[in-house]
Amino acid sequence: MSEHPKFHLPVMLPVRPVATSTACLVATLSSRWGLLAILSGLALCLGLEQAWAQQDMAAFSIWEAIVKWTPLIFWGTGQGLGGFVLNIWVSVLAMTIGTCLGLMLGIGQVSPHRVLRWPSWAVTQLFRNSPWLVLLFYFMMLLPYEIRILGFSVPFSGWFKATVALSLPVMANISEIVRGAILSIPTGQWESAESLALTRRQTMWRIILPQCVKRMIPPWMNWYCILVMSTPLISILGVQDAMTLTQDALAAEGRMELLIPFYLWLMLWFFAYTYPIARWTRRLESRFAVKL
Amino acid sequence: MKTWTPSEPIISISNVHKAYGSFQVLKGVSLDVKKGEVVCIIGPSGSGKSTLIRCINGLNDIQSGSIRVEGMEVNDPKLDKLALRKNVGIVFQQFNLFPHKTVLENVMMAPVIVLKQARTEVEQRARALIAKVRLEGKENAYPGELSGGQQQRVAIARCLAMAPDIMLFDEVTSALDPETVNEVLSTIKDLAQEGMTCILVTHEMGFAREVADHIYFTDKGVIVEHGPPDVFFANPKDPRTREFLGKVL
Ligand SMILES: Nc1ncnc2c1ncn2[C@@H]1O[C@H](COP(=O)(O)OP(=O)(O)OP(=O)(O)O)[C@@H](O)[C@H]1O
Ligand SMILES: [Mg+2]
């Protein structure tokens, strides 16, 4: 690009070295892990610089604090699930529940029977348009601490209630994805299946839904990323997730200069987990876009 | 319900009315088809040919009149749709193959999951049908990998796998390239010669003249004129028929 005559204007000359280093940066950025490395370095430098400004020799002790607390924030206290691992587990579980329920609701939304279609639509709209945090509080209050089934008591721990609450907006959005995908299949598919005497249910599960999977996967993965990034919300309910434990660690240290480095560090974990998924989603999207 | 005997018309349509909203598509259509007969329906676009043919296997419902297929009243709410559709196959203009299934799976699907026949036996039959429509070697191809003419022949094989007594064809060559039209038509001709009862909606006048036992001409939801092909084409009586034939021939 610098070979173009337009860029030989004298005023542009001092800029050129910067431009080449930018090109270098872009090249590094285009590799997924290069980008991650740069971002994490940048984040830590930012944090350290901040500390430097405040307390001359404190930078090294910030590193020490991070190293010290990282295992706790990652794995939790060791009693049951906790930390970042719990965030991931909650996201996986909420996604599974949300996907199963959302599939049912989405199919319900295109049902020829009004008694199925109408409630499915209503439930979908309700949970699609509710703030996630409000849902979390609501289900925290609504669900009991344990339920008794046939004499057995099944405890509902805080994180499980939070998982159920998070799965509901996911369910509603998956329901819309499923509905949209089903409606995008040409009616000729329904007609030819019907003329071959397949029942509606057989047509749905064997003809229509298998064709929907392709177009549903990218938006589905997209919602998974959104869900992962929403899991720190559960810290407000006192669940021992990465966010809660970061706050606990900060409280224990009681040092203002640790705030920014610690939250940046946590941010990076989420980024490192969701960014590859987002990249992969983009790849699938472009692949399917060409094929369909 | 009285049982049907092969000496009676296999399809008996009388005074059928059908409307979409306030728009009358069929305004009292009657026609009979005998077993083994090949009937062609021709007429201008929008005259209700597709609608009529789809009513025969219950894809469209009718407002009044009666359609009987092998003695079954198609419009009867208590009708066993499986029994009807097992006996009446339909091939569409747009093929409508299942794109996520191979040719073989497309052909095997209905007998296996609807009629619950044994897979191995169905597969044998399916392979024979694929050979019959001259597509040996394409069993494991996906519909997207086939030409239009090949896809349409798969659609025909898929219908035949249900071993129907009647085949309905709705402008099955209209979406095809001119060079592939003939391969589909010759497949249909084979079927007709084997004694399959066929109702064809077609714009291929030469083909209609060659294979049909009887031609019906529809316009604006009514049957204007009908007769055996030599009489029909040589000496059309109604001015509307003459005008239409003048345009297409
Ligand atoms: N689902 C529908 N809803 C409303 N109107 C319809 C519907 N299907 C068909 N029609 C109308 O009914 C009339 C007859 O349609 P039909 O498809 O039976 O015509 P056709 O004779 O098959 O025409 P062509 O030769 O173009 O296929 C047309 O005017 C069409 O617009
Ligand atoms: Mg038509």
Apparent shape of chain A: globular
Report how far the terminal alpha carbons of chain B are from each other: 45 Å
Helix fraction of chain A, binned, reads over 70%
CATH topology of chain A: MetI-like fold
Low-pLDDT residue intervals, each spanning 5 or more residues of chain B:
none
Largest interface: chains, residues each: A-B, 16 and 24 residues
Provide the domain count of chain A. 1
Helix count of chain B, per DSSP?
9
SSE blueprint and pairings:
The complex is a heterodimer of chains A (292) and B (249).
Chain A: H1 16-30, H2 32-54, H3 59-75, H4 83-109, H5 114-128, H6 132-142, E1 146-149, E2 152-155, H7 158-184, H8 187-195, H9 200-230, H10 242-253, H11 259-291
Antiparallel strand pairs in A: 1-2
Chain B: E1 11-20, E2 23-33, E3 38-42, H1 49-56, E4 64-69, E5 72-73, H2 81-87, E6 88-91, H3 103-113, H4 119-132, H5 148-160, E7 166-170, H6 178-193, E8 197-201, H7 205-211, E9 214-219, E10 222-227, H8 229-234, H9 239-248
Helix pairs in contact in B: 3-4, 3-5, 4-5, 5-6
The structure holds adenosine-5'-triphosphate and magnesium ion.
Magnesium ion binds next to α1 of chain B.
List keywords for this structure.
heterodimer; A: 292 residues; mainly alpha; MetI-like fold; two-stranded antiparallel ribbon; 11 helices; B: 249 residues; alpha/beta; 6-stranded mixed sheet; 4-stranded antiparallel sheet; 9 helices; globular; binds adenosine-5'-triphosphate; binds magnesium ion
